[in-house]
Write a structure and sequence with these properties.
Residues 1-26 form the signal peptide. The chain is of the alpha+beta class. It contains 13 helices and 21 strands. It has 2 domains: 1-159, Immunoglobulin-like, CATH 2.60.40; 163-168 and 228-432, Rossmann fold.
C-alpha cells in the first residue's frame, strides 16, 4: 500500500497552506488543524471501505512445457472473498532469468472474478521460476494505491521446438518418400534383399531372378530395398559462436530444433541415431540407438544443453568423435566459424573425418552481412562496412566451397529453411545409398 498521486497533491496543498498560516503569526491555527484532521479522517475511512489484500484470492497456472520460439500462455484467476474486485485492477507477472523481468496481464471479468492472460516469449531453453504476481488497484476515494505481492511456486519449462514432429509433417514427408512412390521406383536398385514376387507385366525385367525362375519354371522377380540401420550422428557445436541470435533465437536452438526433426525422420527411416555435443572440450556422446526409441532421450539431452561461453575446439572434438565410431556413419555437424584460422582447422579435421564417413555440415547464413552487401552505401562509413561485409562473405564462401570439393555436403541457409533442407538431404543420401 502506498499514497496515491491524489493524496500527495492534497497533502502538498495542505502543507503549503500550513506554511503560510504559520508564517502569518496573527492567523489562527485552528482551521489548519481541522483541515489536517479531516484529511486524516478521510484517509482512514478510505482504508476501511476499500478492498484489501485479504479480500482477493489469486491462482496462476502455466503450461507444463513450451517450445522455444513460441509464447507461453500464463493464466491468472483473481477471485473476490467478500468485497467486490476493483474495476481498475491491473496485474504484472514477475519473471526470472532469460524470460525477462515482468509481463503485464490482459484482464477481463466482473466484480466477483477476473481472468488474466499473459504471453511470455520463450527465447531460451531451461526451467524458469515465476516468483510472484503483483496486483495494483486504487482505493475507493483514490487516496491510496494497493500493490500487494503474491508469491508463486509456478515454474515454466522451455524445451526444444519439435513442432514439425508433433504436427506430423516429418512423418508424411519421410513415409511418402521412403515407403510410397519412391520405394516402388527404386525396386531392384537397392542393396538389401526384400522379397521374391511373381513377375507381372510392367515390372522391370532387370529384377528377374533367372536361376529361381528356371527352377520354378515361372518368372519371379527379386525385389531389393535400401539398407536400414545406418548410424546417424548429430553433432552440435555448443561454443560461444552458436549463442548469436538469429530470428529471435540463438543459433544453437535452431540447430537443436533441426537436429531433433532429422532424428525423428531417421527413426521413421529405420536408422540408428546418436548425439554428440562439444565446445572447448567434448561434452556429451549418446551412442546410436533406434531412432524412435532414442528420440525421448535425445530430446531430454538437448533440452538440458547449457549455453556455453567458451570457444569451440574442432580439432579435439572431431578427433574424439572419430575415435567413438566403429562403422561408416552419416555425421550431421551443426557449427559456425568467424575467421579463417578457425575455418582452416575445421576443414583439416573434416577432411580426415570424411574419409570414412558421410558428412553434412550445416551452418546459418548471416542476414546482416547479406543486408550490408546488398544495400547501397551513402556514406564513407557505409562504404567501408559494405566492403568489409563483402570480404567476409567471400571468405565464408571459399571455406564452404573447399568443404564441398572434398566431398562434404554443405548446407548454408536461414533458420526457417534448415529443417526442411536437412530432412531432404537425408532422404537423398538414403535413396542414393551413400552411407
Amino acid at each position: 500500500m502506498r499514497p496515491s498521486r491524489r493524496l500527495l497533491a492534497i497533502a502538498s496543498a495542505f502543507l503549503a497552506a500550513t506554511a503560510l498560516t504559520v508564517s502569518a503569526l496573527a492567523a489562527p491555527l485552528l482551521p489548519v488543524a481541522l483541515l489536517w484532521g479531516a484529511l486524516l479522517s478521510f484517509m482512514l475511512a478510505d482504508l476501511a471501505i476499500s478492498p484489501s489484500r485479504r479480500a482477493i484470492a489469486v491462482e496462476v497456472t502455466a503450461p507444463d512445457e513450451v517450445f522455444t520460439g513460441e509464447d507461453a500462455i500464463i493464466r491468472a484467476s483473481i477471485r473476490s472473498q467478500g468485497q467486490p474486485i476493483p474495476t481498475s485492477l491491473s496485474a504484472i507477472l514477475e519473471l526470472s532469468g532469460d524470460l525477462g523481468t515482468r509481463q503485464d496481464f490482459t484482464l477481463r471479468g466482473s466484480s466477483r472474478a477476473v481472468l488474466g492472460e499473459a504471453r511470455v516469449p520463450a527465447r531460451r531453453r531451461g526451467t524458469f521460476a515465476l516468483p510472484g504476481l503483483w496486483l495494483s488497484w486504487p482505493s475507493r476515494l483514490g487516496l491510496w494505491e494497493f500493490t500487494p505481492h503474491f508469491s508463486l511456486d509456478t515454474v515454466l519449462r522451455v524445451i526444444p521446438n519439435i513442432r514439425p514432429v508433433v504436427s506430423g509433417q516429418i512423418d508424411v514427408r519421410v513415409q511418402s518418400d521412403l515407403y510410397g512412390v519412391k520405394e516402388n521406383a527404386l525396386v531392384g536398385e537397392g542393396s538389401e534383399f526384400h522379397q521374391m514376387r511373381d513377375f507381372m507385366p510392367g515390372m522391370d525385367t532387370r529384377g528377374i531372378d533367372w536361376k529361381r525362375s528356371a527352377r520354378r519354371r515361372d518368372l519371379v522377380v527379386k525385389e531389393m530395398q535400401s539398407e536400414r540401420n545406418h548410424q546417424i550422428i548429430v553433432a552440435l557445436d555448443n561454443g560461444y559462436l552458436m549463442r548469436e541470435e538469429l530470428a529471435g533465437l540463438p543459433k544453437i536452438d535452431h540447430a537443436v530444433n533441426a537436429a531433433l526433426a532429422t532424428a525423428w525422420a531417421a527413426g521413421i527411416g529405420g536408422d540408428l541415431v546418436g548425439l554428440y555435443s562439444f565446445d572447448a572440450v567434448p561434452r556429451l556422446f549418446v551412442p546410436p540407438q533406434p531412432g524412435r526409441a532414442a528420440f525421448p532421450a535425445l530430446r531430454a539431452h538437448t533440452a538440458d544443453l547449457s549455453y556455453q561461453t567458451a570457444s569451440s575446439n574442432p580439432t579435439l572434438a572431431l578427433a574424439h568423435l572419430n575415435g567413438k565410431l566403429n562403422r561408416r556413419s552419416l555425421i550431421i555437424i551443426f557449427s559456425d566459424f568467424a575467421d579463417t584460422t578457425t575455418a582452416e582447422l575445421l576443414v583439416e579435421n573434416l577432411t580426415v573425418l570424411n574419409r570414412a564417413h558421410v558428412i553434412i555440415f550445416a551452418t546459418f547464413s548471416d542476414p546482416e552481412l547479406e543486408w550490408r552487401v546488398g544495400t547501397a552505401a551513402h556514406s564513407l562509413n557505409g562504404m567501408a562496412e559494405a566492403v568489409a561485409a563483402t570480404e567476409m562473405v567471400k571468405e565464408r564462401r571459399l571455406v564452404l566451397d573447399g568443404l564441398s570439393r572434398i566431398g562434404v555436403i554443405c548446407l548454408e541457409t536461414n533458420p526457417g529453411e534448415l529443417t526442411a533442407r536437412l530432412v531432404s538431404t537425408y532422404l537423398e543420401i538414403k535413396a542414393q545409398e551413400l552411407i
